[in-house]
């Protein structure tokens, strides 16, 4: 399986939760240079919401895409 962890060369958002009882883990790297990681369901949810609001798709809106 390919490593889906985002890097500066391949920015993005990655979330994993291997089982219902395991804590979620997330990492994000934006092409603007911002990076973040989170562990725990609530923290990963905040990471995803912040990514959607301020990075990734938000950058596309700014550029008129």
Summarize the structure.
With 65 residues, the protein is of the alpha+beta class. Helices cover 31% and strands 23% of the residues.
Low-confidence segments, given as residue ranges, are none
Overall shape: globular
Helix share, percent: 25-40%
The total count of strands amounts to 3
Distance between the termini: 31 Å
Structure description:
The chain has helices spanning 41-54, 57-62; strands spanning 12-16, 25-29, 35-39. 31% of the residues lie in helices and 23% in strands. The chain is an alpha+beta fold and 65 residues long. It contains 2 helices and 3 strands; from the N terminus they run E-E-E-H-H. A 3-stranded antiparallel sheet has the order 1-2-3, with helices on one face. The longest helix is centred in the C-terminal third of the chain and has 14 residues, at 41-54.
